[in-house]
DNA sequence: GACTAGGCGACAAGCAATGTCGCGTCAACT
DNA sequence: AGTTGACGCGACATTGCTTGTCGCCTAGTC
């Protein structure tokens, strides 16, 4: 296979999507870094021009080192191509994520979902009806997602990833006053469509929990994030900051009515779950579970459908 | 840009992933169909060999028209390449889906998740620690997913997509006896990690609900699926086949303790939700909701934390 | 106005890609 | 067992593409 073809494919990967861009000299140095020896700048220029004739790639020629980029709405095509099974799975995932992730977050994945649509609709007319064939039913009571600002999200995510600080304008729900913080994000926790930011504020060592959709404005700062030695998101969550208590392991013994408990026969509470079907059809379950608020809510949700024998 | 390079890229897209495969003659005809005139079979053979030297592509040489395929665990690389934001979103999605979709289903997406891992770990050492920075907390009590056979899943999905029949061997949970059905899948519903197949059996017009993980064996038949005129998955679900009753709209009025209800201030029950904070801190919510079993379970799960005033 | 960086056209040398042909192999059919 | 056909692959000459070099042009900068 010719060096040329390989190089051009590699170049396609180095070209970013529209807001960002790459210049020919940058590209040349990336290529040499990637092991393509002795590529003249001239060759890179020629290649970029050639690629733009066959792919949705354009150059910004307003200033001199031209900036090359994939057009914003260029469809993502993957290698290997999406097979129908994977496309179906993607749509399933989309169906589900729509219920659970904020829209602004999910937008990043839309080129993939679009690609899945294409695959499925190309597979012949019959298959075009797939949306009528697949459904995801939500777990629990559906709630409306809070509105998240796209720019705010981008800044916060970037700050988290690049260990930088951000200045955010924050407003608590029932308050009119806005506050401005300089945050150093430590972690991101998503639960029930709400995105939480674990962070420190200013030079303080104390960790705070901000809610993404309460941030009105955010601006990335060119300052490295404050470092908290030994911080671990896992431990932080274990501490019960999200209302989940320490998570002691307990032995649950309970008797469910047949209707309420039969799903546990197939989706067990734990690996060591014991089940016994009583003569009257009721189901006795014994399992080792973690004692959390969720567990209590889950048990309560069955109302009369469950009788808890013991929980030690 | 040379015809050669373009053709080879196109070939990469035509090559399927491991279980499936494509032969050189097939490839040749696909290429001519795609507008590449006059490609000798010999050239295609040469190209395939060349590609396999630079990509995780292999050929099955056990029988004569060799079958070419991308290796099962080949990482998917997309064009344009995954940017860090998208990669992070993908990992977030994976985190979520792990809790909700059966593992066998999610396996189809694993190349994408792997690609996201690569992007994130290449972004410099600091970013390699991202898994410690992002967490998704499950909604409700976590249950163990049932085990689904990969082959069974593939066959059933394919039957659904191609409107064909499949022969399945089915075993109900507490029974030893296996039954064999010839099913025509009508739709797929996923709820709480359980995949349900809505289908007809044999020539009957009655719809049945099978559970994917109870299928022991499945074989695709070369018979078109039985057609049910006017079937709609949407309507089927509305009929309450999943224990969700008809879904009458009702007006809910309830008073929550502050702790139990404050999340409703930001993630509302409905668009027309009214909230009032009572002098003692409790929260009165009025909203139009659909009366479902989920709603009742949700209300019960708060125990003493909520007092339902009316539900009409 | 000189200087610099980058883009681009032109051109000859070299290298790669292609079609053709022939041989070998394997499997299926007669 | 022989025949036939499909396929993969090595070899080779020819065609045509790719590449580095050089020089010119433009736009911004000191």
How would you explain this protein's 3D organization?
Chain A has 3 domains: 3-70, Arc Repressor Mutant, subunit A (Orthogonal Bundle); 150-238, Roll (SH3 type barrels); 249-311, 2-Layer Sandwich (Alpha-Beta Plaits). Chain A is an alpha+beta fold. In chain A, a hairpin with a 5-residue loop joins strand 12 (274-277) and strand 13. Chain A has a 5-stranded antiparallel β-sheet with strand order 9-8-7-6-10, with helices on one face. Chain A has a 4-stranded antiparallel β-sheet with strand order 12-13-11-14. The model of chain A has no long low-confidence stretch (mean pLDDT 87). Chain A is extended, with a radius of gyration of 26 Å. Chain A contains 10 helices and 14 strands. The first copy, chain A, has helices at 3-14, 24-33, 41-54, 84-100, 103-106, 110-122, 150-162, 233-238, 258-261, 293-301; strands spanning 22-23, 57-60, 67-70, 77-79, 134-136, 164-170, 179-191, 194-201, 207-211, 215-224, 249-256, 274-277, 283-290, 306-311. In chain A, 30% of the residues are buried. At the A-B interface, helix 1, helix 3, strand 4, helix 4 and strand 5 of A face helix 1, helix 3, strand 3, helix 4 and strand 4 of B. Strand 7 of chain A pairs parallel with strand 4 of chain B. Chain A binds a DNA duplex (30 and 30 nucleotides) through residues 2-4, 23-25, 38-43, 45-46, 49, 61, 63-66.
Feature tags:
Arc Repressor Mutant, subunit A, Alpha-Beta Plaits, alpha+beta, 3 domains, 312 residues, SH3 type barrels, DNA-binding, five-stranded antiparallel beta sheet, homodimer, four-stranded antiparallel beta sheet
């Amino acid at each position: 296979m010719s060096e040329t073809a390989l190089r051009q494919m590699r170049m396609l990967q180095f070209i970013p999507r529209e807001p960002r861009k790459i210049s020919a000299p940058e590209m040349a140095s990336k290529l040499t870094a990637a092991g393509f020896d002795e590529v003249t700048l001239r060759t890179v220029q020629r290649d970029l021009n050639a690629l733009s004739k066959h792919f949705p790639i354009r150059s910004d020629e307003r200033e001199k080192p031209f900036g090359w980029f994939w057009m914003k709405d260029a469809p993502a095509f993957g290698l290997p191509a999406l097979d129908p099974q994977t496309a179906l799975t993607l749509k399933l995932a989309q169906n589900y994520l729509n219920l659970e992730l904020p829209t602004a977050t999910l937008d990043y994945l839309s080129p993939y979902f679009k690609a899945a649509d294409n695959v499925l609709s190309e597979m012949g007319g019959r298959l075009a009806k797939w949306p009528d064939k697949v459904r995801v039913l939500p777990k629990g009571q559906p709630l409306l997602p809070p509105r998240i600002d796209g720019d705010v999200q981008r800044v916060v995510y970037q700050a988290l990833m690049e260990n930088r600080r951000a200045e955010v304008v924050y407003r608590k729900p029932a308050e009119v006053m806005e506050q401005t913080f300089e945050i150093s994000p430590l972690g991101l926790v998503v639960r029930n469509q709400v995105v939480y930011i674990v962070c420190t504020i200013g030079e303080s060592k104390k960790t705070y929990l901000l809610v993404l959709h309460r941030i009105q404005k955010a601006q990335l700062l060119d300052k490295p994030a404050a470092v908290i030695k030994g911080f671990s998101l896992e431990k932080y969550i274990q501490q019960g900051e999200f209302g989940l208590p320490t998570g002691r392991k307990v032995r649950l013994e309970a008797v469910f009515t047949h209707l309420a408990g039969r799903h546990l026969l197939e989706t067990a509470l734990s690996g060591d779950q014991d089940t016994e079907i009583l003569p009257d059809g009721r189901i006795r379950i014994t399992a080792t579970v973690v004692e959390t608020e969720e567990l209590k809510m889950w048990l309560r949700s069955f109302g009369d459908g469950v009788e808890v024998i013991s929980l030690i």
